[in-house]
Write a structure and sequence with these properties.
Helix content of chain B: 25-40%
Strand content of chain B: 15-25%
Radius of gyration of chain B: 25 Å
Strand content of chain A: 15-25%
Structural class of chain A: alpha/beta
Oligomer: heterodimer
Radius of gyration of chain A: 38 Å
Number of strands of chain B: 15
Order of helices and strands of chain A: HEEHEHE
Largest sheet of chain B: 4 strands, mixed
Distance between the termini of chain A: 91 Å
Structural class of chain B: alpha/beta
Largest interface: A-B, 70 and 109 residues
Shape of chain B: globular
Strand order of the largest sheet of chain B: 7-6-8-15
Chain lengths: ~120, ~475
Amino acid sequence: MKKGIYLFVAGMVWLSFLALSIPTMAEAVTLEVLNPRGEIKPPPTFAPTPRVADLADKRIGIYWNGKSGGNNFWDVTEELLKEKFPTATILRYKGPFDLGEKTAGIVAKEGDVFIYGVGD
Amino acid sequence: MRLEKLGKPGVFVVTDNFGHDAKSAADDNGMPTIRIVTVPAQEYYKHRITKEEVKPIAVDTIRLLIEALTHPLTAQEANPKPKQMKISQNVKVTAESYDLAVEKFNQSFLDNHWGDGLPLVPPTPKRVQWMLKGTNRSPQEVIGAVAPKNGVATIEKIAINAVMAGAKPEYLPVIIAAMEGLTDKNFDLLHVATSSGSFTLLIMVNGPIAKEIHMNSGIGFLGHGWRANNTIGRAVRLNLINLGYLWPAENDMALIGRPSSHTFYTFAENEENSPWDPYHVSLGFKKENSCVTVSTIGSYEGGMTVYGGGAVAAWSPKSILDNIIKDISGDRKMFALFKRGVANPTAHPRKHIVMLHPECAIELQRLGYTRESLQKYFYDRTSVPYEELTPEEARGLQERIETSIMGGSIMADILPSDRIPVFKEGLKPGGKVPVVVSPGDIPIFVAGGIPGYAFGVSYIKAPYAPTSHQTKLIRGATLTKAGR
């Protein structure tokens, strides 16, 4: 019986050594790197202008940047708007992608609402 | 957005493939809830050719347009939240081994759109410090803002991206100078970075630093195999991705990608075999200075025109000059095509970069040409006598002059004020109208080996800023004799 206990204890000691000598898991590696992204200074935020209730009697501006085929799309859009709102006036404008401050002033003065279509 | 700010309700219309780009631009410019209506790109582009074909798309869209103009703004639209952005300084990646951590880092950076698709060098604090040893400039120094989202470019951020590109510290001052050129307020970075036209960049290094860092200017100068050429260009690319927040099909809309998009066309002028002073000296810099020139150039379509040279076909200086003149003369199309705002590349004045291989430059020098006299020669030989102008060309030119005086249209169309008198004089009997705005719009570089090719790359006058061509002095170098 005593011999059995000695054998058991010896076995446990041996197993403990064995457990310690076998790596249970590879040690984790942490790679610390610097963030390559640049800070962005947030711009002031603006809300769009409140909408109109109806397009009847309104002056609707259509602004297009002249890219090929856009004229066909906007010609049809103009016809459809005239059908739906016979009393509305459609104003057509053509200019660069960014219409610029000067043209924006003119367009804003002449129209009540606008559609800004740059063709792509 | 300008019209909304002037109190007019509107709707922005784009194809659905550009919807993300439009929303992103709205966010960047402070009106995140602007109303956008998209039309299906798959249908629109192929059917826009006639009214009849495009009508079904307009019919499907009209209801959306009306609603966008008449449906009241929601509470969220009327009270957009200010943009908040917090950038962490450090990023940690943990894995079971170093190799796996590097792999995880690469995948994570690419997933975040912080990489370029090729493996990256991890920008550890230690590695970035190593990179910063290449310059004596403060890591916190701000170089500028990078379009389109205007991320701030500091020396440290440029160094981080240079590490990721695999650059060496002695290249850093060159990369910084290139970024100074691209973020200069006069340089139109927005167009080259984002346009669907797939334009790309040329990055040329001049001065003694090029040799010190072993840049290639001979055979294969636009190709692979040269660490300085390739990683300087790649560092610029990564800086544009991470500081400009660029990503393909989101806000970089190059439809077929950009030629040499990972490294751009980065090379050194072949000063050793050039018969003339280096390009930067022609701009007023000292010969012992080192400089970087950044310049937007065309894409696959009309991007590169070979004028002659090579190891196969015979050539002469005359045949090459004739081909250059023929190429530049094609710009005459823009005379008649002037219409305000029309998006037609041939309607705008152009810049022509003429790349001469050393043999050709040497022969031209023997014939008595200098870089400056050659520019003037091309400018004069391509100018069109008043008597040869068609009525339509004369009308277009007159309209361009008048619009330029009034300050209208886009920058790509208008003439600089100091060149308007030249065009006015050209429009008189006995006068000649230039097809390039000034001789300076035909920069001449000497590059390539022996044998080599003479070729040209060109680009329209920049649409959103005054120039597409900048040369910056390299300074602050600590590891090279040049560029200090």
